[in-house]
């Protein structure tokens, strides 16, 4: 199996791959090359450079994928070295081993023993070196493809704080995290998941801070994944989350290194997937989704207030239309008299009951929201502006909808963007409608039942074994200082303590 | 780990249970007995409740880690034990139907008169069934989440009603005959404390018996005792003793009077939320007794959750049967209910205590 | 009619629950479930046709009559 000569220098675990049928490397070079050409169907971007190994006078070939490799490394450090190597070797020493040990001026080297490994490495961007007469091959790390580079975040913007975002290359991403945490306890385990895509997936954690049981559990779940292709971290998310029927997310994701680094220092694990800038964090509790990284970049007083605002926004986004429908339909006595008069004047000519109004408006708004995502950028903002304002205004004047309803829907929409997590706001979007139905049938009692059902459901959820609504229930007073309020740093980051493994 | 109740959760569940249906039914009964001194009766009830709790805790402690039905089989022998378990399950089944009836009647008479009470029954029983399927730990956590809001609502209720309080309505204090005291305390005990035994015993397996658990019972009792006494006092002070007697739901009528600056008016539904949470928890705890009772008797504890739907259906149907009309309800609540409560809340635990001691002595003698 | 709707609902819920139980080996649970659902449906149908259902509170009242007598005589209950 591949021995990684670089293992001694890095603190990384060996690559964990799935066992596959082993095609041995033939001693005759032409056989190997024919095998390769047949397997890739003579693909024009798999380059095979044949030449002669100077030191032994044997034929040699270098195989690599054009576009995935840094050609300079191949030309200067592999081709040149091997073509001009002078010192003659004994015939009985394995040339590959000697080359590996003494001749290649390349950082990552591994010895390959079967063709499947050769394909894995070549198709990942390494160069495979064959020498006639040897039944192993050498893989040299020559990865160098075009990357988007480290750019600004588009989805999670902050007023104050770093603007870097992850890119699609997993190595860039792990590097970005290492820039934030320079502790040798930051361990990285890598996996190849996906039978066809063989996507690189890495799990990072701070050893000693993250619970061993959590790490073991995450590792076993990742190893259990059986799927053809992994294209996005959401594919991984679906496969490793706790098996429960829920619309609420139980794994957090972010495209910002500082967020991920902060979560790592709290004892969570990060799962990076090659090909996507969105990195997963496990376990993720309800409180996690209502935090923004900015909470830690501003003073604690404003952060606490903003957090409370966010929780209030969450409640409003979920229940505002339902409350409006319930109170105007069943409990008019609760509205102060002046307001009641103007409300009923507004609803005077409206043909629909409040519930239908709410449904129409909410439905229209959802449609607009989806459409705005897919419109080309040039038209996008103008059209959504037009859509909401003008259509709303026109509908009010046409007497289809009351102005109060438009206001309620607008407030709901704005509040649903207050909390940073897109997954959670999706859950809210879905839940709003059943809640409206309950409100329309049973008034405030209906809303009571609806919220009770939602809370009971949330309480039955777990993220990697931890109750979803911790630290609110079961109540852990020690953790309260960062859940709802945000106390000053002196009280938060005492030191990163080692957590004992609890059963 | 997730199956254990924390002491805090236990305290909250105890407090909710005690206030539960009591708050709807008892204040007018107490006012009928002792007019303006109703709150003294409530205090007496809470005091006797504490003694009952002491008895229950003794039984729980000596039979730790087994729930009520396992205790029955162990102490009474297999078949008599099963018979008793089943009887208890059936009794509590009737209680469930009654609680559902109370909720339905409260909502349809006070909040939404046009809604048929069957609809409310169905709504609540569906919620109970769904909640039960999520397990008692989830329910306990839900109770914990609602707890700060329950307290907050209660405090705001009292605060907003302060302007309407006339303390002189409490005078003359202490004018009641001693039998009234006993009867009032007994009423409080039958609603709040006597049913507690079977309810919390069926959860006994989930307790981790340290001293903090016993304290949880005491704190829960004290907290709810304070809340109930305050509520009874407030309704006497705001409505006057005669009105408190005649009103169906005196505390709700008090909530109706809240008027903050002519802006916050008629917000009694919010206060009703308070009662709903408490009653819901009580209902679901009763429901747990029924389900676990049947499951243990027939030995299908692993699949107990499947029983929830049929039992829920039956409860919903019987909730319309169990109290044919209001007169029947008053009659039954005042007489048979007290008898039943005393039976399962006093005689039964005492019997269990003796049997536990007896068995221990026999085991020690061997 | 309401009874038919209830029957349909219970059958659909049963269809969701029972197969998993049956193959999981919980035969007793399935039996209990079916019995109780049947009882529930029968009771509901009976009610919607106007037959009065037996009232368990009545049974309790009758069964505990001696005790209620004693309690009333003791003055612990005020009728």
Topology:
The complex is a heterotrimer of chains A (503), B (366) and C (79).
Chain A: H1 29-39, E1 46-53, E2 58-65, H2 71-84, H3 95-103, E3 109-112, H4 115-124, E4 127-131, E5 137-140, H5 170-180, E6 186-193, E7 199-206, H6 212-223, H7 233-240, E8 252-254, H8 257-265, E9 269-273, E10 279-282, H9 286-289, H10 300-329, H11 337-346, H12 354-374, H13 377-398, H14 403-416, H15 422-460, E11 462-463, E12 466-467, H16 480-483, H17 489-492
Antiparallel strand pairs in A: 1-2, 2-4, 3-5, 4-5, 6-7, 7-9, 8-10, 9-10, 11-12
Chain B: H1 7-19, H2 22-34, H3 38-62, H4 68-76, H5 78-111, H6 117-133, H7 136-161, H8 178-193, H9 196-201, H10 211-239, H11 241-246, H12 250-256, E1 259-260, E2 264-265, H13 268-297, H14 308-318, H15 326-334, H16 336-365
Antiparallel strand pairs in B: 1-2
Helix pairs in contact in B: 1-7, 1-10, 1-13, 2-3, 2-8, 3-8, 3-10, 3-16, 4-5, 4-16, 5-6, 5-13, 5-14, 6-13, 6-14, 7-13, 8-16, 10-12, 12-13
Chain C: H1 2-23, H2 27-48, H3 56-63, H4 65-74
List the defining traits of the structure above:
heterotrimer; A: 503 residues; alpha+beta; 3 domains; five-stranded antiparallel sheet; 17 helices; 12% strand; disordered N terminus; disordered C terminus; B: 366 residues; mainly alpha; Amino acid/polyamine transporter I; two-stranded antiparallel ribbon; 16 helices; 77% helix; globular
Task: Characterize this entry briefly.
Chain B: Belongs to the amino acid-polyamine-organocation (APC) superfamily. Spore germination protein (SGP) (TC 2.A.3.9) family. Chain A is an alpha+beta fold.
Residue share in β-strands of chain B: under 5%
* Termini Cα gap of chain A: 36 Å
- What's the rounded overall pLDDT mean of chain A? 81
The portion of residues forming beta strands of chain A comes to 5-15%
Please tell me what the overall shape of chain A is.
elongated
As a percent range, the share of helical residues of chain A equals: 40-55%
Poorly predicted ranges of chain A: 1-14, 494-503
Q: Assign an overall shape of chain B.
A: globular
Spatial order of the strands in the main sheet of chain B? 1-2
Distinct helical segment count of chain A = 17
Total number of beta strands of chain A: 12
How do the SSEs of chain A run, as a string of H and E?
A: HEEHHEHEEHEEHHEHEEHHHHHHHEEHH
Terminal residue distance of chain B: 35 Å
- Structural category of chain B is mainly alpha
User: H/E series of chain B, N to C?
Assistant: HHHHHHHHHHHHEEHHHH
Counting DSSP H or I runs of 4 or more residues, the number of helices of chain B is 16
Which chains make the largest contact? B-C, 42 and 36 residues
Number of strands of chain B: 2
Region (Disordered) (chain A): 1-23
Organism (chain A): Paenibacillus methanolicus
GO cellular component, one term (chain A): membrane
Transmembrane segments (chain A): 269-290, 311-330, 375-394, 400-422, 434-458
């Amino acid at each position: 199996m591949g021995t990684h000569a670089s293992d001694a220098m890095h603190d990384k675990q060996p690559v964990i791959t799935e066992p596959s049928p082993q095609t041995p490397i033939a001693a005759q070079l032409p056989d190997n090359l024919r095998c390769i050409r047949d397997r890739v169907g003579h693909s024009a971007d798999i380059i095979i450079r044949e030449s002669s190994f100077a030191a032994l006078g044997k034929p040699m070939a270098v195989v690599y994928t054009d576009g995935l490799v840094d050609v300079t490394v191949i030309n200067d450090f592999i081709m040149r070295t091997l073509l001009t190597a002078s010192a003659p070797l004994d015939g009985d020493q394995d040339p590959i081993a000697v080359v590996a040990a003494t001749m290649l001026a390349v950082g990552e080297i591994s010895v390959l023993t079967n063709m499947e490994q050769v394909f894995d490495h070549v198709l990942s961007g390494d160069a495979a070196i064959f020498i006639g007469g040897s039944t192993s091959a050498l893989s040299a790390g020559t990865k160098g493809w075009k990357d988007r580079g480290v750019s600004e975040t588009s989805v999670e913007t902050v007023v104050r704080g770093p603007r870097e975002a992850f890119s699609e290359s997993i190595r860039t991403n792990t590097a970005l995290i290492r820039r934030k945490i320079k502790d040798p306890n930051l361990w990285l385990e890598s996996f190849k998941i996906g039978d066809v895509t063989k996507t690189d997936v890495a799990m990072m954690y701070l050893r000693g801070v993250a619970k061993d049981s959590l790490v073991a559990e995450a590792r076993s779940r990742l190893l259990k994944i059986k799927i053809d292709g992994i294209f996005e971290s959401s594919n991984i998310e679906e496969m490793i989350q706790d098996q429960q029927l829920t619309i609420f997310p139980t794994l957090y994701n972010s495209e910002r290194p500082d967020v991920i680094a902060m979560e790592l220092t709290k004892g969570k694990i990060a799962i990076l997937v090659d090909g996507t800038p969105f990195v997963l964090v496990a376990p993720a509790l309800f409180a996690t989704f209502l935090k923004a990284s900015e909470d830690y970049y501003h003073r604690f007083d404003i952060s606490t207030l903003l957090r409370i605002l966010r929780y209030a926004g969450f409640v409003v986004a979920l229940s505002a239309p339902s409350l409006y429908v319930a109170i105007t339909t069943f409990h008019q006595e609760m509205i102060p008299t002046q307001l009641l008069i103007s409300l009923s004047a507004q609803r005077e000519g409206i043909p629909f009951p409040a519930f239908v109004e709410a449904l129409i408006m909410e439905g229209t708004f959802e449609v607009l929201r989806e459409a705005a995502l897919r419109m080309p950028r040039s038209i996008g903002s103008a059209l959504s502006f037009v859509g909401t304002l003008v259509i709303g205004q026109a509908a009010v004047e046409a007497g289809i909808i009351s102005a109060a309803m438009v206001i309620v829907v607008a407030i709901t929409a704005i509040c649903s963007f207050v909390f940073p997590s897109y997954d959670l706001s999706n859950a809210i979007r879905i839940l709003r409608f059943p809640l409206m139905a309950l409100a329309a049938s049973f008034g405030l009692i209906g809303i009571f039942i609806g919220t009770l059902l939602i809370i009971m459901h949330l309480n039955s959820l777990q993220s990697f074994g931890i109750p979803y609504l911790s630290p609110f229930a079961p109540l852990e007073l020690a953790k309260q200082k960062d859940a709802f309020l945000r106390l000053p740093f002196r009280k938060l980051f005492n030191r990163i303590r080692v957590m004992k493994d609890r059963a | 780990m997730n199956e254990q109740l924390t002491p805090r959760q236990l305290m909250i569940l105890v407090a909710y249970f005690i206030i539960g249906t009591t708050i709807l039914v008892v204040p007018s009964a107490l006012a009928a007995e002792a007019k303006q001194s109703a709150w003294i009766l409530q205090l007496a009830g809470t005091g006797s409740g504490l003694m009952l709790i002491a008895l229950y805790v003794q039984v729980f402690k000596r039979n730790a880690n087994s729930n009520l039905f396992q205790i029955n089989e162990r102490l009474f022998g297999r078949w008599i034990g099963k018979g008793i378990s089943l009887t208890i399950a059936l009794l509590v089944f009737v209680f469930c139907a009654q609680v559902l009836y109370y909720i339905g009647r409260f909502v349809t008479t006070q909040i939404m008169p046009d809604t048929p009470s069957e609809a409310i029954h169905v709504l609540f029983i569906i919620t109970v069934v769904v909640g039960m399927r999520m397990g008692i730990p989830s329910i306990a956590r839900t109770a914990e989440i609602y707890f700060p809001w329950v307290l907050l609502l209660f405090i705001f209720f009292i605060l907003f009603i302060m302007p309407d309080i006339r303390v002189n309505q409490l005078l003359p204090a202490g004018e009641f005959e001693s039998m009234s005291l006993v009867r009032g305390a007994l009423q409080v005990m039958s609603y709040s404390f006597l049913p507690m035994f079977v309810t919390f015993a069926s959860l006994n397996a989930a307790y981790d018996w340290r001293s903090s658990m016993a304290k949880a019972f005491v704190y829960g009792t004290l907290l709810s005792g304070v809340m109930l006494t305050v509520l009874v006092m407030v309704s006497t002070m705001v409505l006057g003793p005669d009105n408190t007697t005649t009103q169906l739901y005196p505390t709700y009528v008090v909530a109706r009077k809240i008027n903050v600056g002519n802006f916050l008016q008629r917000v009694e539904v919010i206060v009703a939320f308070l009662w709903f949470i408490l009653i819901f928890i009580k209902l679901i705890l009763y429901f747990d007794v029924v389900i676990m009772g049947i499951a243990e008797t027939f030995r299908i504890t692993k699949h107990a959750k499947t029983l929830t739907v049929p039992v829920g259906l039956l409860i919903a149907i019987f909730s319309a049967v169990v109290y044919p009309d209001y007169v029947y309800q008053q009659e039954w609540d005042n007489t048979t209910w007290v008898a039943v409560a005393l039976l399962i809340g006093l005689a039964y635990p005492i019997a269990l205590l003796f049997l536990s001691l007896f068995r221990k002595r026999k085991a020690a003698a061997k | 009619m309401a009874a038919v709707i209830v029957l349909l609902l219970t059958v659909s819920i049963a269809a969701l629950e029972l197969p998993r139980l049956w193959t999981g080996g919980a035969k007793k649970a399935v039996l209990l479930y079916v019995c109780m659902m049947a009882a529930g449906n029968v009771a509901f149908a009976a009610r919607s046709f106007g037959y009065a259902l037996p009232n368990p509170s009545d049974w309790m009242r009758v069964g505990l009559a001696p005790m209620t007598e004693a309690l009333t005589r003791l003055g612990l209950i005020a009728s």
